[in-house]
Amino acid sequence: MSGRIIVDVEALALPAGRWTAVVGPNGAGKTTLLKALAHLLPVQGSVQLCGRPMEDWPAKARARALAWLGQGEPGADDLLAHDVAMLGRLPHQPWLAAPSAADHFAVERAMRKTQCWDWRDRPLGRLSGGERQRVLLARAFAVEAEVLLMDEPLANLDAPHQADWLLVVRELVAAGRTVVSVLHELGMALHADELLVLQRGRIAHQGASANPDTHAALRDVFDHRIEIHEVAGQWVVVPR
Ligand SMILES: Nc1ncnc2c1ncn2[C@@H]1O[C@H](COP(=O)(O)OP(=O)(O)OP(=O)(O)O)[C@@H](O)[C@H]1O
């Protein structure tokens, strides 16, 4: 990015054992921030994972602690879905070792959670957009990392599979894992514990998703083109 500062964050702490959704208008810097947190982009300053600077982590230990799902990731289309999900276990495997029983167990569990176990023997390139996304989600879940960073994890997912994703995230958080996801779908984002609201490369607001200040910040960054209503105990976002 030729040295240009895209996201300017003075200090940011994302709470452990919680789910934070990163939201904001197009171009606000959500993907850039997530990539910087994942150590995929250079940062001026320091990013810490579980209280330890990223660069101090041995690469493999970091890959076990931090799972990453990018937006529209190019995948190896010839790989079978099962082999793609197994890539999530690489940080757990000794060099050139065959996957262990624990690896197979983790992959099957992840693929069943995202409901892609039935087509485990199909090549990635022959899956629909949503089917493919579920395999990539399984890969991220199979890492069994402390921290999961996911950019647009719901891309191409139909409503029932979005609900499944929500359940998995809830389970992970209940088990003490930390989830950070960029979400465009604000109704889904408002299911998160916390919202990090970005605007023009800066943090406009960070707070609990049920907090009225958070809703006010959302309305602000979207130029008051949204309304937020509570319907049957859930937040519903309506464009206007
Ligand atoms: N590789 C790049 N080189 C230069 N500028 C970039 C690059 N990637 C993104 N940008 C710019 O950085 C800004 C933030 O982009 P980013 O993708 O982080 O936004 P975003 O909030 O995720 O957007 P969206 O909601 O559209 O996905 C945008 O102005 C974008 O044009």
TrEMBL record:
This is ABC transporter ATP-binding protein. Part of the ABC transporter complex HmuTUV involved in hemin import. Responsible for energy coupling to the transport system. Keywords: ATP-binding, Cell membrane, Membrane, Nucleotide-binding, Translocase, Transport. InterPro entries: AAA+_ATPase, ABC_transporter-like_ATP-bd, ABC_transporter-like_CS, P-loop_NTPase. Residues 1-225 form the ABC transporter domain. Signal peptide: none annotated. It comes from the Bacteria. One of its GO terms (molecular function) is ATP binding.
